[in-house]
Amino acid sequence: MQYETLLIETPAKGVALIRLNRPRQYNALNSTLLVELGDALNHFETDDAVGAVIITGSDKAFAAGADIAEMVGISGQQMLEMVEASTGWRALSTFTKPTVCAVSGMALGGGFELALQCDILLATKGAKFALPEVNLGVIPGAGGTQRVARIIGKSLAMEMIMNGRALFAEEAHQRGIVSRVIEPTEIEAEAVQLASELASRAPLAVRAGKACVNKAMSSTLEEGLLFERNAFIPLFDTEDAKQMMTAFLNKSN
Ligand code: CO8
Question: Which of 17, 69, 72, 175 lies 20 to 30 angstroms, CA to CA, from 51?
Answer without folding.
Answer: 175
